[in-house]
Structure formats: C-alpha cells, structure tokens
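Q: What would this chain look like folded?
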Amino acid sequence: MKKLSEGVYEFEKEKGMRVPARLYTSEKLLGELEEGAIQQGRNVAYLPGIQKYSIMLPDSHYGYGFPIGGVAAFDEKEGGVICPGGIGYDINCTKPDTKVTLEHGTYIRIKDIEKNIKINVLHPDLKRFALKESNLFYYLEKNEDKELYKITTKTGKEIEVTADHPIYTERGMVVAERLTKEDRVAVCSFKGVRYQEAGEEILVTEEDIHRAISEKASLGGHALKQITNFLKKNNLLPLTTKSKAIPYLIKIMGFVLGDGSIVFPSKSKGTTWFYADKKDLERIRQDVIKVGFKPSRVYERTRKHKIKTYYKEYEFIRTEYSFKVRSTGFAALLVSLGCVPGNKTTQEYRVPLWLFRSPLWQKRLFLATLFGAELSSPATANKYNFYCPTLGMNKLEKLESNAVEFLTDIKKLLEEFNIATSGVAKVKQYGINGKAGKTTGFRIYFVSTPENLLKFFETVSYEYNTKKFAKACLAANYIRLKEGVKAVRAKTRLLAVQRYANGVPISSIVEELESAHTPAQFLKHSVGTNHRNAPRVAFNFMSFQEYADEHSLGENGIAWDEIERIERVPYSGPVCDITVNDEDHNFIANGFVVSNCGVRMLSTNLTYKEVQPKLKELMEKLFQDVPSGVGSEGRLRNTQEQVDEVARDGALWAVEHGYGTKEDLERIEENGRIEGADPKKVSERARKRGKPQLGTLGAGNHFLEVQRVDSIYDKEIAKRFGVYDKDQVIVMLHCGSRGYGYQICDDYISILNDAMAKFKINLPDRELVCAPLGTREADDYIKAMYSAVNYAFCNRQVMTHWIRETFEKVFKKSRDELGLDLIYDVCHNIAKFEEHDRKMLCVHRKGATRAFPAGRKEIPKLYRDTGQPVLIPGDMGLASYILVGTEKASETFYSTAHGAGRCKSRTNALRNIRGEDVKRELEAKGQIVMATSHKVIAEEAPGVYKNVDEVIRATELSGISRKIARTVPMGVAKG
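A: My prediction, written as structure tokens:
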C-alpha cells in the first residue's frame, strides 16, 4: 500500500486484479480498519468491467462480499457486472435435515419450520449464556449447487452449512469457511424429543373442577361459578391436550409431585407452594403467568431442620426459597390433572393415564420436571465415571404397594425413550419416622453404561433445575469425549497387535502410532498382553470437574467444543435458514450455536429551548407512532396489489395517498421514484414479507433521532438547506426496505450464482456472486432491486408523515408553524446507472452516499447551484453531519461516507456493554433513549462505532465532500 496524498491510499494491482484498490481515510482510521475489510476491497477489484478503482471510504468495515463503505463502478461495454454484495446483502443456510432446538425440550428439522412458524426457539443469550425462548419470524430457503462445509467436533457433533453461515466461537460469530481446527465452537449437548402435534383429547371438564374443589374446600356464594368462569376466560376449560397451557401445566404438575405442595387449609381456598433455588423459581413463576395465574413474589427464610434417618439424626440450617399461587382454580386444575393435595407420603397416586397417551415430548416434560425436583444430580464416583442417577420415593408402610406402582409407571415412561432402569428396590434405610407415621423408602436407578446415560442426559434431562440440567449437558459432552478417546485407543491397540503379529518391531510401532492418547507404554502393553476388555482412557485424561472448568460457557450447559475436522462436501439441493425475533439473532442447530437503507433529514422551526421541556413526551409519542423492532408491522393495511404499486411508484405513492407533499418529492434522491422497477420480478415470498412492514423503522442500526444544531461551518449553504441557527431542532430518520429488500437479494443469489457458471466468471470470493450487465439475469435483478429502492423511499415518506403528525400533537401547532421541511433523502445501498467521464456506468454504493457537486442535472433545482446535501449519521452518543458534494469526489464516482462505521461487532458489544448502563449515561446528559430492549442499546452503543468526527475529518482531508453543519442527539428511538 502506498500513500497518494493526504487521506488517500492505494493497493496496486496484483495478478488478477483489474484495477487498484483505493482507501479514502485518515491515518488513525486506517489503523483501526480490519484486515478482512481490506481484503474484501481488494477482492472487488477482480470483478469484470470494474472502472478506475475498487473504493473504500472512511467508514469502511467488514461486510458481505464488498466491504460496507465500498464503491465500485462497472461498464457494460467492458463486460461489467451487477453484484448484490455491492448493494447490501447477507445470507447463510443449513441443510434441510438440521435439527433446531425448540421450547419444551423439543426439536424440529429446519425444513419443517415453515409450517410450524409459531413454535418458539430455545437459544442462548450471548452475553450471559442463559437459555431463553424467542419466537420465529421467517423461514428462508434457497438452492445450493456447489458444496457445504461439514464441521465435526471432538464430542461427535456434526453440522453442514453454507460457507457463509456464522457459527459461534471464542472469536464471536465466524462464518464456516473461515473456521480453523484451532477454533472452539459453542455447543449444547441437549437434543430433546422431536416435536409433534398432540391429538385432541379433553383432560379436564367443568365437572372435574367442581369435584376437585368440593372434596377439599367449602366455598360459599358464587365462588365456584367465578372460578370456572375465570378458567373458561383463560381458555383452561375445557382443558385439552391441544391447549396452549398444557405444556406448562405438565411441567408444573411434574414439579409439584416432587418439590411442591397443594394445600386447602381449614377447607378454605386452595394454595399451591413451590420450593427450589431462587433462579429456578423465577422460571416456574413465568410459566405460571403464561398459564394465566398470578404468583406471589419469591419468599426467602432461613430455617433450622432436624431429620432422623435410619443412620442418625441430622440437624442443619439452610436458606429456603419459595413462592405460592393463591388460587383455588389453579389448585383444582392441578388436582384434576393428577396431583394430590396435602402430604404426598400419606396418599396414593399414580402417573395419570392420559399422560401415557400423550406425545413423547409431553412425557419428557413430566419426567424432566419430576427429575429436576427428585432425581439425583449427575456426579462422578472416581472423578471419571458417573454414579447411577437414582430416583427415590417415601411412603407410609401401608402404602408400599403404591410406591412400587408409581415407580413402575416411571420405568414404563422411560422405556419409551429406550432408557434402562433397575427394578424397584425397597430400601429400608430411606425410611423415616415422621409426624404421619413410619415410612419406607423405594428407589429405581438408571443403568450407568455410557450409552444409557447419554440417552438420559441428551434426551430427557432435567427441567426447572438449572444446575442439574447444566451438569447433565456437560456430562454428556464429557462421556462422548471420553468414549471417542477410548475408541481411538481400541483402534490403535488393534493396529499395534496386527503390526506386531506381522513382525514389525515394537520401536517401529511406537514411532508410527504414538500420540497423546496412545503413549509408548500403552502400545508396548498392548502387544505384550492378551487383552479381553476394551481399553480405558489414559491415566492423564482430564477428570469431569477439570473438563467442566475448562469447557463451560456460562452456567447453563453451553460448552466449548474443539473442532475435529472441517470438510468441504459436494451438495446440490435446498438449504434453509430462519430469522429469530431476538437481539442475539442465533439458534441451536444440531447442537451448534449459530447466527443469522437510507437516511433523510427534516428541519424544524423549533429551538432546543422549546423542545427540551417536552422532549420525553415527544420521544415516547414518536416511539409509539412509528413502529420499530425486528419483524415489526406497520399501521398501514395495504393489499398485495398496493405494495406492488409502492414498488413501482416509491414516495410518489405515499404523497398521492396523503402521506406528504409534492415539495417532498423534489428533495429526495431520484425524486423518490427510480425508473425501471418491476414488481413482477419480485418473488411471492418477498412480496409477502414487504406487505405488513411498510411504514416501519426496523431494527439494528436504523433509528429515528431528534437532534439540535451544534455547529454551522458554511452559513450560506446551510441556510439553503434549511439550517439557520445553532440550537435549531432537526429530525433524522434512517431505515430501508426491511424484509422486502432482503428477500429480493436472497432470491437472486442462486440465480446470479448460476449466471457466474454460465458466463464462466471466476472470482476469489464466492460472496461476490454477480451477472454480466445486459443479460436477462442482471436485468431481472436490477428491476427487482429497484422495486426495493422504491419501497424504501415510500417507507421513509410514510414515517415522515407520522413524525409530522406527532410533532403537531405534542406541540399543538400546525405543520406550517413547525416547519418540518424535508432537507434531503439519500440512498445508502444501491446500484445506479450514472454518467461519469462520458461513460454510462453502473455505480454500486454499499454503505456509501452519493455526493454530487454543483451543476449535476440529477440534483434537485433547489440545490443545483450548491451541490447535493450529504447526510452522515454518527452514533447516538456523539453527532451527525450535513455535508455537500465536491468536484474532487469524481475520483470516487461522486461517493462519500454514509455513517460512522462499526468498529465492534454486535456480539462483542453484547459481551462487553450493558444497555442499561449506556441508557443511564446518555440520559444523565439530558438525552432520551427509547428502544425495544436494552440489548438493542448495547448493540448500537457509542463505543461500537468509529468516531464520526474523525470520519468527517478524513472525508474532508481526502476532499470527497465538505462539512456544512454538525448536529447532536437530543432523543433517539431504536428498534
């Protein structure tokens, strides 16, 4: 790389590069630029028909194919191409049979998710690695006709994904093709049971509730009717196997039969108590709420205990946590399902018969919650081998037969999971002398072979007991790791014996086969002794505790797993992906943790002093009136045909439907409508995704910000743009084409991938998928892409209308009094045909802004003698800028930066930044921050972006645009 001038650097052409790669940046920003982004800039220089340079702007950072902040122009006459990676795109997929972990301990093949989209996904919080549930928004599918990456770990987990699919590692999310054997990947060994729909069977009727209550309580007046009406209102009567509440009730029932109790004191109202660790009680409380009842807070008390066992009397002090549900209806519901009120050791009960007719995953829920309360925790006898998990039960001596019956029921349920257990054994030592009389203990234990323990730990495990579940996950990984080592030792021993039998000297055998797990002594012993049993692990193999200490990731069973091998396997067929409604954007696939616009500005006639007293009210109303967040739906209820009209007419559609004025259109790039869009080239899936999202802000780095003018550098041009004074209030809006544009790119990737093969285009990076300009494939993609551009113009225009309405409501002034005139609207991710150096070129701007100087006919007449306004948002803690295009920007095809540019990934931000802290710090400075969650704030915190002041300095240093005014945030709304 060489320095050409202040703010301009260049990589000269290498073999295969058609043009040099140029960086427009400062020395400081250059030092912060990722190596991967620089390589992407160089890769772009290989594209056919590229003109002058592959360009990287001051805010550049790593993207998909192109770096974000990348610009490239292509000449059709010289074989130039259209490339989605140069416009803004991201896609990653897995094989259709990949198992996705769901709520309630279930899984489903990813290809079956489209018809089960309402199911919640279980996945880790990437900051604390606690498992949580999130709903699904979208199912995506495309064809892959080349290869997949098959990753196998040392515990035997396998996944096959496209090269660009991110997998969580110690380096954060890393795409499959960039993984190495030195990486450790995050895994969860729990598999669960395949999800299936339950059949329709009535479990609890109104008569059942009446019977349960009348046997235990004497309720006067209309109490019984009120209870049944409440249950009906909450869709709990009649209760069927298909009721939404049934999975939660099964879990609660299993737990109550273990560490809970139902009481009807003095024949009055029923109360259900729960006893567990504080964190586990919170999970149970949330499930009680989901069923429709209100639990108490968690109580805490320290108690002295005295228990007399067969061996001796024990006295101890412990802190006990509990909560209660004071609802007779809730208690009656549990009793009707099969729980018993009162002291369980003094009463007969069995596993309910209806549970034997339920789907396997519901049986697992019951067992796992009972085991969470009553089954022994995973533990090792000698640091390496696990004890048999044991389930015990105490009954009055006269009820011994019932204890045997209940444990036999449990055995029968476990047989359906192919989990072997012992017979029911009477253990006299388990009995105690209690207040109700003398009890006898009974138990069953799980056969402790590795195969049997793996079936239990990976399939059934524990619910409502985080510590036991986490230990079971780690134990499963440890067993698989240990069994893998034993298999290697057995195979090596067999080879050593065969070599020795064929006359190979021991010294040569050792030289050939010695490894960390098969040392010389093992090999010598193998050929010198007649072995009847399979080898055990080496004496230096880590203990279970050592494994847990080294590999645990958080406290919820997620672990680091080492990569055994990475293979590229030929594949032709569909691949799938899902979009999860969560800030972490991840899910668990085959046990692996994996992942998955433009700006406008309005001026106002308001000042900082006028807005500040009403700022909180204003931001709350804006947050309410302008829908935001992942998958958010707008206030419009358009038909599919109207969405197609939007794709053709852009912001013009909005103005014609009352969302703005003709003056607005004069201040939008392309007058808010780019010619050549054709919604017929847009897939049905993209059209469906776009239909509900029109008029929504979205998530990620999209925002709505109320700002004040901090500095004015060119008063004359600023005044022409509508910026008159310091402390004038400005509104900035940043959003794009939402899922509509994303899906269009997704649909055309496979089409353009085929075009590359058809036209024999070979490139160093498969993310640079493209098609030659002038071909059917390129023309179709451009028409579809322009549909997304028009959708984005209209999206911002509709939201602008709602912003104006909100200001009118809050300040009780008319639009004319408030101003709220559009300064300008610029595109960020687009490819457009423009004339440069007397050539018509297709200019790709990915995370870049057009910056035409004075005189260009594409600029609105209002600004033609000043140059085009350039709007550059910064982070929510620093500033944003208004600039103007310059003649020097001809070097960059009149392009400039589009923002501050990220310097930390979202994963890194979530790991190191607390959204609550950021919000507190910003609000301490007088700023109001509205967001759908604290994690959104953490992802977009000031520290994750480059310093926008330095980006603007670099922009001016290189001469590609000139600053006019600086604004600072007062309030921000984020999705």
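The chain has a mean pLDDT of 90.
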